[in-house]
Specification:
GO terms for molecular function: CoA-ligase activity. The protein is an alpha+beta fold. Helices cover 34% and strands 28% of the residues. It has three helices and five strands, in the order ββαββαβα. The strands form two sheets. It has a three-stranded mixed β-sheet, with helices on both faces. The longest helix is centred in the middle third of the chain and has 18 residues.
């Protein structure tokens, strides 16, 4: 399932993924937005991010802050990354090459 339901509104992961890849192309190699089950939001949008190069933890904290700010500044409140930003080595793919969202969700929870 791709669609995320946050605060009774639909969130399209591809919209947020495209925005982040466009705005942070020098830092982000790949990104996947998933909905983490949440008692307040229903599903809290979260970003699993693959960086272009190894970064120190303080640099990752700064990148995380910039990623959240990009979404906050450009998207409606129900699309904000309430689930957080997670840095992963790779985004799991299915045999057909599509993003394996359930596997990504397991990495983020």
């Amino acid at each position: 399932k791709e669609m995320i339901k946050c605060m009774d509104n639909q969130v399209t992961p591809a919209e947020l993924e495209d925005l982040l890849l466009r705005e942070h192309s020098s830092d982000i190699a790949d990104v996947c937005i998933v909905g983490i089950p949440d008692t307040v939001y229903g599903e809290a949008p979260a970003a699993a991010v693959v960086t272009r190069c190894t970064q120190a933890s303080k640099d990752l904290a700064e990148l995380s802050r910039r990623i959240k700010k990009t979404i906050t500044d450009n998207c409606a409140v129900h699309k904000h990354l309430y689930g957080g930003v997670f840095f992963v080595d790779c985004i799991p793919k299915t045999e057909s090459g599509k993003t394996d969202r359930p596997a990504v969700l397991r990495k983020c929870c």
